[in-house]
User: What shape does this take?
Amino acid sequence: MHAYRTHNCGALTKENIGETVRLSGWIHRKRDHGGVLFVDLRDHYGMTQVVAKEGSEWLDLLDHMPNESVLTVTGEVVYRGDDAVNPKLATGEIEVVADDVVVQSRAKELPLPVAGEQEYPEDIRLKYRFLDLRRETLHKNIMTRVAVVSDMRERMKAAGFNEFSTPILTASSPEGARDFLVPSRIHAGKFYALPQAPQQYKQLLMVAGFDRYFQIAPCFRDEDPRADRLPGEFYQLDLEMSFVTQEEVWDTMEPVIAGTFEAFANGKHVTPSGSFPRIPYAEAMLKYGSDKPDLRNPLIITDVTSHFTTSGFGLFEKIVGSGGVVRVIPAPNTHEKSRKFFDDMNDWARKEGFAGLGYVTCKGGEFGGPIAKNHGQEGMEALYAELGLGENDGCFFAAGKESDAAKLAGAARIRVGEQLDLIDKDRFELAWIIDFPFYEYDEDEKKVDFSHNPFSMPQGGQEALETQDPLTINAYQYDLVCNGYEIASGSIRNHKPETMVKAFEIVGLSKADVEEQFGGMYRAFQYGAPPHGGMAAGVDRIVMLLCGAQNLREITLFPMNQKAEDLLMGAPSKPEPKQLRELHLRVVEPVKKEGEGA
Assistant: This one.
C-alpha cells in the first residue's frame, strides 16, 4: 500500500465499500457525537468523513489534534446509512473507519479560520496566505484561473498562434506607467526595466516573420493598487498577427474570448462570437459616459444641450452659453419613488466631487422639480417626446464642460441602474470600443501627448499627421470591454519608420530621440516590416469576472496589499550593504516633511 494514499479525499464512493484504503489530508472540521468522533479530512480534491468510534485507540488522538493538522488515515470504507448521506458531498454516501492514524504534521493555533467563508482582516489573510488559500472559495477561484489560462492556450493554438517567451530584463518603454528598474552589476550606473508589456518584442517577432504570436505574459508596472488592478505585476493574453486589418483581429479573437467566457460562465448569457457590438469611442462617451460601458445597464445618456439654449432655467442656459453641454440620464418608472430618492442622488453627486445632479420627477405626465418648473410644461413635453420617455419616468441632468458632464453622466448612469435594479447580473456583455483619439491634450504638461498606445497606426497615416489638427486624428486602436471593465486593449501598429518619427515629433520627441529610445524597433522597420496588429487581454480581470469576485486579490495566488507590500515574504526589504556595493548603489533617504515623525 502506498505510504500516504491509495485514493484522494474526493474519490471514494459506494463502489469502494468494504475496501481498506489510505487517505492523507488536513483536518477540516471535527464533530463529537457522544463518544463517536467524526473528522472531515480534506485535500485538494475533496473531503472524506473519517470516524473513530467509542473504544477506538485513535479516538483520543483525533479528539485532541488541532484543525489543519495533516494526517494519514488507514481504514475500511463503510456506508454512512440512509439517514446520514450528505448529497452535497461527492463522498457523501461513505465514511472511513479509522484503523490506523499517522500524524504527519501538527498545526499550531490558527491565526485565521480555514473552515467556512467568514470575513477576516485582509492583512492577516495576506500574511498567512498559505492558510487563506486552503479556504474553499479562494482555492476554487485559483483553480478556475488555472483552467481559464489552459483554455485560452488551447484556443489560441487552435487559431494558428504559436507561444513565444519574450525577455523579462529589457529597456524602459513608454507604456503610460512607471517602470520597475533593475540595477546592472556589470554595467555600473545602468538599469534594466521589467517589461510593462512585451509590446516591442512582439512587434519585432512580426518583423522577424513569425506571423502569429501569443503568450500568457507577465507585465510589471509601478502603479498604485485598486480593486481592478494589482500593484506590481499582472498577466495578460498577449498576441500579435501579421498582414491583418483591425476587423480581422476582432474576428479572430471573438471566438477565443467568447469561447472562454462560455466555458466558465456557469450558464450565464455571453455575447455570442461574431456579434460583439463595435462602438466608436465618441459614441461610447456620449451614450454611456465611459469608454468601458456596462451594456447590461439599459440606460442611454442623451445630449439635450439644444433644449436649453434659451431655456427659462437660467443655470443651464448660462452653462450652454459658455460652451458647456447638458446630458440627461433617464430614470424609468420612478413615479412611486419619493423626493428623497432624487435628493439622495444629488447628494451622492456632490460627495463624488461634482457640483450637483439636477433632476425632473414625473408622475402621470405631471412634471416636478425646479428644472421642470423653470423650463416649462411645453419645454418638458418636447424634451420627453424626443427622449421617448413615458409619463411615469423621471430623469437626471449633468451639465458643465463636456468632459465633466460626460464623467458625471456616466457615473450617474451606473448608480441609477444599480438603484433601480436594472442590471442583469446573469449576463456577460462584451463589446469593442473603437476609433480612439490618437492624441490628447495634457493639461498638466500643457502639451499634446499620446492618448493610448504610441506605436499605433493613425487613421489616415502620414498624411493625417502632416495635415490634420492632432486632436482630430483617430487611431486604429480598440478596447474590448465586459460589464463595465476594460478586459483587452489593442491596435494596428505603425510599421513605417517615417510615420513613426512624425507621430513622436508631434509629442515633442525628435528623430534622434526615437532612435535612442526605440532603436531596436525603429531599425527593424527599415528592413521590411509587415503590416501587423494585435491586442492583450487581461487574464486577471477576466478571471475576476468569471468567478464573480469583487477584487483581484481573490483570484491571485500571492498578491500584495494596498501598500504594495508582500506581507508573506516581507517584500520590499532593505538590501545588504554588500549587495549595494556590488550594484554600485547607495540609498538616499527621502527628506522628511515638516510634521512627519523621525
In short: The chain has a mean pLDDT of 94. The chain has 18 helices and 24 strands. The first strand starts at residue 20 and ends at 32.
